[in-house]
Known about the structure:
Distance between the termini: 42 Å
CATH superfamily of the largest domain: Aldolase class I
Number of helices: 10
Structural class: alpha/beta
Radius of gyration: 18 Å
CATH class of the largest domain: Alpha Beta
Shape: globular
Strand order of the largest sheet: 1-2-3-4-5-6
Order of helices and strands: HEHEHEHEHHHEHEHH
Number of domains: 2
Helix content: 40-55%
Amino acid sequence: ALVNVGGDLAKLVPGRVSTEVDARLAYDTHGIIRRVHDLLRLYDEIAVPPERLLFKIPSTWQGIEASRLLESEGIQTHLTFVYSFAQAAAAAQAGASVIQIFVGRVRDWARSHSGDPEIEAAIQRGEDPGLALVTKAYNYIHKYGHKSKLMAAAVRNKQDIFSLLGVDYIIAPLKVLQSLKESITSPDEKYSYDRRLSPQSAARYDFTAEEV
């Protein structure tokens, strides 16, 4: 059923279709790889070529290693559930085609938990932790020439969109997209269509030796 839905979507949309690997395999590198190979065979039976496919894998250390091995075979992977810079950097180093960060979920966690040094540092700088993580991950990917594309998901409002302009991909609810249509841009930087993220800004971003 999963592959049939993916096949139908491939007929309707351009670009790639992302198929999620069973989350119960999140801590089983070889189980993930076997499952992706099985899915590829099923897609081949309905004439969907590998270049139209992404395989969505949880960003556990085992999942990141599976991504590295699959990418070495030319199979495109989509690493999800990235909630820290360490995960994002490891995913980029593994060569994942797409890395997905849930902006709103990081923000939600920060509201009800404390003690995470990465989140605390962002808050002390007066930054939203979810937006800060996307910015840092984007700059790392582009500054150091990794092939990965960064996807920002779970955006909650139009300010999230404005703050992330320039990121490779954004997943936004329909109501947020509709709010953009109603926006009138002004000199106020908060709601302007100026690009916030770019390879040029990434080149100027400073990372510590430990982060690199």
